[in-house]
Each structure stands twice: as C-alpha cells, then as structure tokens.
Amino acid sequence: MLFGKMMLRFRIPLLILLGIVCLIFLFVIVVGGMLLFPADAEPRGYAWTADTQFSVSDHAVSVEMRDTSLRVMLLTDMHLIGVSDGRTGELVRAMAERLNPDLIVLLGDQCFTPFNLQAYGYLIALMDDVGIPWAPIYGNHDNFGDAQKNKLGSMLSESVSGLFQYGPQGMTGSGNYVLNIVKDAKSVHTFYLLDSHTTAISDNPPVTAEQALWYEWAVKGIRTQAGGDVPSTVMLHVPLPEFVPAWQEASDSGSVLYGEKREASCVPDKNTGLFDKMIELGSTKGVFSGHDHLNNFSVTYKGIRLSYSNMSGYGSYGADDMKGATLLTVNADGSTEQELVFYKK
C-alpha cells in the first residue's frame, strides 16, 4: 500500500521503474564481471621479449594462398547480445555465401553483453558452421560480462575452423597475433592483429607502447626470415588517432577513396606512436578498424591507407544502409585491393 501511494505521489510509471531496475541490474553484472572475475593467472601464449628471435613457425599462423589471390572478408561490431542474434547470423551467412572468402577476420566487439559467454558460444558455432577459416581480435567491449579474455580465448581455441592465438605473454590485452600469408612457401603478405584492450577510464583505449614494440619485433622478424620486406596490413578495433587528420585532409582535397563519415571518429586521446612506427619500418600499407558504427570511409594518409569496415551486426546503434563487410583481396605479389560490400536481404 505504501509503495503504491509513493508511485502515485511521484507519478512514476511502473514500466519506467522496472526499466531503471533492469538497467541497474545489467550495470552491476557488467561491472561486477570485470571486477570480480579477473583474467586467469595461468600464462597463455608464448614467452616474449624484444630480445628474443622471431620465428614464423613459432610466432605466426601461416595461411596458404592456393590460387592467384586470397579473398578476405572483414566483419566488425557484430555486438551479439547472447540471445536472439539470428539477424546477425543471417547477415554473416549471406555475406560469406556471396563473397566466398578464403579467410574471415573479425575486427572486434563481437559482443557487448553481460552474457558474453553465451554470445561467444553462439559466435563459434556460427563460424564453424560457415566453415571458413576465421581469425578474431578483441574490441574494447568483448570481455564485458561473465567471461574474461582467457576464458573466451580457451573457447576460441576449441573452434574447428578458428585461427585465434593468445599471442605473447605478459602484454596488455590478449590475442595479439600474426597471420602470415604464404604462396609457394614464400611470405607474400602479413596481417598484424592487435587487441584493443579494455580500460576502466576510456572507451577508446590506445595501442600500448608494448604492443608497438611487439609489432616492430614481428615486422623485423618477418623481414629477416623472408630475406626482404613483406607488405603488411594492421587490423585493430579502435581506430588510430591519425584517422582524424587523415579524413580532414582527404575530405578537403576531394581524395576520399570511398565511404562516408557520419559520426566523429572515436580515437584514443593518447598517441603511442604506432603509426609513426609503421612509416619508419615501411612494411604496413594499410590499416583496418571498426568501433565507429557510422563510419566506413577509406583514405590514404602519409602513404598508408586507413579504412573502416562496414558494421556487421544488429546489437547496437547503426544504419541499415551501412551494414555488411569489406572484401580485402591479397594478390600473389603482396599488393591488395579492397571494397565495401553491403548486405541486402
């Protein structure tokens, strides 16, 4: 009776009150999952320091180019919620059937839900059913919920067609790894996959200085083992700070290669120098990211192509006319071509 009188007095509709309670409950689960279930103490991946010797066989996953090119489908920001994810599953299946890729790379935020354990279970079953080799990297939201990255990683490692690797031990995040594309036993192109780790103070976490050092170590190691420079692409979820001046410069000069910018680029406040390291080393020709659901542009900046991929899911904000994938074609000479592909039911 007292509760009912209070509701009448303050004119708080029951549905709004229940909604507030649900939001508080979800917040407690998400934050509690992050705080109460820390990453496993057991070391995962390989031991690494900058002084160790890079080995393709030990520190990279080889992907064989069986034809004159390798077709790679990029998906990002599925934002699975762990229940009722059928629409996103339909998109993934339709795009895979249409593009017939040799490899699929997921650019992060496969989920953002308290039920990320269930979401990743659905994801792995979906991708294994599609049956194409696939390599995921984490975004800044994947480990919100009841499973941390080592648990998710152990699930990914059980995938029949998955290529996920834990990467180096002792580094912020998990799942920093190398995909080395090989044609006739020769390295022709390399993908460097970087985890956009979660932080408590930013939704746009920067690449760490240690990740940049690991990238340099891997690039130099590939060069040494291949007997020369190998073209490469960097893939990560959160765009680099250089995406902002790159768009402005291309927009002002009318040199945008494709796509649109419908929202501000959500880049880190701190620049840890990865882009400058790319220029210095001369290997990386392109960078792909997700994170911003309403951006899908591609521009060239200081000789490196910076591109967003189309959003590939329905679990968060976005625009239906920007949903789909990116097709990245790696040629036998190491050069690449890319295009946005839109999902049409």
Question: Could you describe the 3D structure shown?
Answer:
This protein is of the alpha/beta class. The protein folds into two domains: 1-36; 45-342, Metallo-dependent phosphatases (Purple Acid Phosphatase, chain A, domain 2). The protein is built from nine helices and twelve strands. The strands form two sheets. Strands 1-5-6-7-8-10-9 form a seven-stranded mixed beta sheet. Strands 4-3-2-11-12 form a five-stranded mixed beta sheet, with helices on one face. Helix 5 (116-130) packs parallel to helix 6 and helix 7 (209-226) packs parallel to helix 9. It is globular, with a radius of gyration of 21 Å. The N and C termini lie far apart (52 Å).
Key features?
345 residues; alpha/beta; Purple Acid Phosphatase, chain A, domain 2; 2 domains; seven-stranded mixed sheet; 32% helix; 20% strand; disordered N terminus
